[in-house]
Write a structure and sequence with these properties.
The structure holds two protein chains of two kinds. Chain A is mostly helical. Chain A is built from ten helices and no strands. In chain A, helix 3 runs antiparallel to helix 4, helix 3 crosses helix 8 and helix 6 crosses helix 7. By secondary structure, chain B is mainly alpha-helical. Among the domains of chain B are: 72 residues, no CATH class; 39 residues, no CATH class. Chain B contains ten helices and no strands. The longest helix of chain B has 28 residues. The two termini of chain B are 64 Å apart. Classes of the chains: A mainly alpha, B mainly alpha. At the A-B interface, helix 1, helix 3, helix 4, helix 5 and helix 6 of A face helix 1, helix 3, helix 4, helix 8 and helix 10 of B.
Chain lengths: 218, 194
């Protein structure tokens, strides 16, 4: 969840800080614990611990799903489905892999399925008139943080439009790297692509974004 | 010795947490152009992720997330509730003993079942159920020429399943002939947008 900001903040000093020892993250430890409880038949206790796991990953999942689907209801559905699938299949979770990667893969697959279903609906059926994207943005509160201020500004709108203009695959990779805070290696495992392919998509996405935003500026 | 400027890809790499090599580090420390390019790239990455995160957070408020969490846990509880076998009729076990105690009832039940079976069989053998049914001539001729053309269609098919079958039918070999026609036909939402 906070990895994005951590990663961003650390980008300038990355060379100076050595890589931390491979330790089990909090969510991976929790997932292992839940798995053990389910295997032992203690489902009630497992559910209680699962609530903590949801709390840990939920916001990050919502951000990713929203970037994928650009619709609050679809994103909500995708996140819920992903968590339910995690609990249902927790026995097949491998503790040697980071939980975040496993979960992201489930979430992304769900988002892709929903996106496919939606494009199918759009092809054959009239879309609903109410859309969260069409809703006007509320004015920024005077005590809004820098993120809200940037989002409400002209620049923020241009950036959001530029990200939306990226080709699907580039946007997917960019979303997972920049919003999901995952490395190219983790994204490659989540999307089932080679790491080199992920990097190519990411570089193209960034170059395209830069071109689009420079064009807007002129 | 003067090192060449860093390529765009290397700069992106550096901005994405990949440590520059010693020579690149040296160059970055002294080259104003590369420093500026690096700063501008870092700003772009920072701004795009900030905007994307703020956009999602604006719609996924704390209340919405709390509601979502409650739904997830509710669904998980429902999913994990295992099915129980309920004995039916509960607590009533006298039926088998009733038949055992009264052989006459057993004989009557057996005879009734046999009669019903024989009646159904005889009906099938002696009566043509389709004879009295009126069928349009066009359908009747098609039914006789290609019986395989008619397939049972489930009325309980979901919208998703139906649209999926439609897509598969179009993508299949049989639909390729119709593709030019499909391309000419405007989509529903395109017409609505005009």
């Amino acid at each position: 969840m906070s990895r994005t900001t951590t990663r961003r903040a650390s980008s300038t000093v990355a060379a100076a800080t050595p890589a931390p020892a491979l330790a089990l993250s909090k969510d991976s430890a929790l997932a292992g614990e839940i798995k053990a409880l389910v295997v032992a038949g203690r489902r009630d206790a497992a559910r209680e611990r699962f609530a903590d796991l949801v709390a840990l990953q939920q916001r990050r999942a919502a951000r990713i799903a929203y970037q994928y689907l650009r619709d609050v209801h679809d994103a909500d559905e995708a996140v819920q489905d992903a968590f339910v699938k995690v609990f249902t299949h927790i026995v097949s979770y491998r503790e040697d892999l980071p939980f975040e990667v496993w979960f992201t893969r489930i979430l992304v697959n769900g988002c892709l399925d929903l996106r496919k279903a939606r494009s199918r609906r759009l092809r054959w059926v009239l879309p609903a008139t109410s859309s969260s994207e069409a809703a006007p943005r509320e004015p920024v509160a005077p005590d809004a943080g820098p993120e809200e201020t940037l989002l409400a500004s002209e620049r923020g709108r241009h950036i959001a439009a530029a990200v939306a203009q990226l080709p699907e695959r580039q946007r997917d990779v960019f979303t997972l790297c920049q919003i999901g805070g995952q490395s190219a290696n983790e994204v490659s495992r989540a999307l089932g692509l080679s790491e080199a392919t992920v990097r190519v998509h990411l570089f193209r996405a960034i170059r395209r974004l830069r071109a689009l935003l420079e064009h807007e500026r002129k | 010795m003067r090192h060449p400027h860093l390529s765009d890809d290397r700069l992106i790499d550096v901005c994405l947490d990949h440590a520059p090599a010693a020579t690149e580090q040296q160059h970055l420390a002294t080259c104003g152009v590369c420093q500026e390019r690096r700063a501008s790239l870092a700003r772009l990455l920072n701004e795009t992720s900030t905007v994307a995160v703020a956009e999602a957070d604006a719609v996924f408020t704390d209340e919405r997330l709390a509601r979502q969490r409650a739904h997830i846990l509710e669904r998980v509880e429902q999913e994990s509730r295992q099915g129980r076998l309920i004995s039916f009729p509960a607590g009533h076990t006298s039926s088998p003993s009733l038949l055992r105690a009264r052989p006459a009832a057993r004989w009557i039940a057996g005879a009734a079942a046999a009669g019903l079976f024989i009646g159904l069989l005889a009906g099938h053998l002696t009566h043509d159920f389709t004879a009295g049914r009126v069928m349009p001539s066009s359908l009747a001729s098609r039914a006789t020429s290609s019986p395989a053309a008619f397939q049972a269609v489930s009325t309980t098919m979901s919208e998703e399943e139906f649209l999926g079958r439609l897509e598969i039918a179009i993508e299949g070999t049989g639909g390729s002939a119709l593709r030019p026609l499909d391309d000419l036909t405007p989509l529903v939402w395109e017409v609505a947008a005009q």
